[in-house]
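Team,

Forwarding the record for the chain on the shared tracking sheet. I've put the sequence and predicted structure together so nobody has to dig through attachments.
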Amino acid sequence: MTQDIYPNNQTDYPSREAVADAIADEAAKALQRDIEGKGSASLLCSGGSTPSAFFTALAAKDLAWEKVRIGLVDDRFVPPDHPASNEGLIRRTLLRGAAEKAAFIPLWKTGVSAEIAAQAASEVYAALLPASFILLGMGNDGHTASWFPGARNLKDALDPAADSIVAIDATGCPVAGDFVTRLTLSKPALDGTQCAVLLIHGVDKKEALQTAMTKNTETAPIRAAMTALGDCLKIAWAP
């Protein structure tokens, strides 16, 4: 599907359980490598329904979780107790058992605008970068993180000089639904990442990725992430 650009980076798994277990193993190895080599490690997570099994599998890994810092690839600008919050998802599925010892760094900030919250998060997230492991997802429109095609300020997130966290206005982007105000990693925040996985499920997502490979970064922003991450990005698919 992406053989012309990334000849060795795609693996198809027989089930969603199998892919969750496989990438949890890979994430644990990346975290352990940095714990041993640097004394700490960082993990950046995407939300949505796709990665829940991965978070559960990763939470069960035997790691020095007190040396791991966890952040978000993006989040809707809603409080953590909101059903649509990615922070809430991470707290329910990953920060359990021994993994509760990890330090979680949210994007949400109470009582301020998304723009101010993005500035504050950029300062804190600088300590997480470059990440030991990043989990990315992708929408059927070719977006990743909160880089939506047609977002009013998509160019801000893809700007080489952008802060690590950017506030996105996705008004008019159908896939964003009712949650048009988002905070997201910028493209330069991906620089230097040690290991990353794009996790996708279903034939529709495989076809969406095939379609994205025929487009440019503005109409299929997943292409921007693939360019930034290069050989450290692997694609993991399950039916």
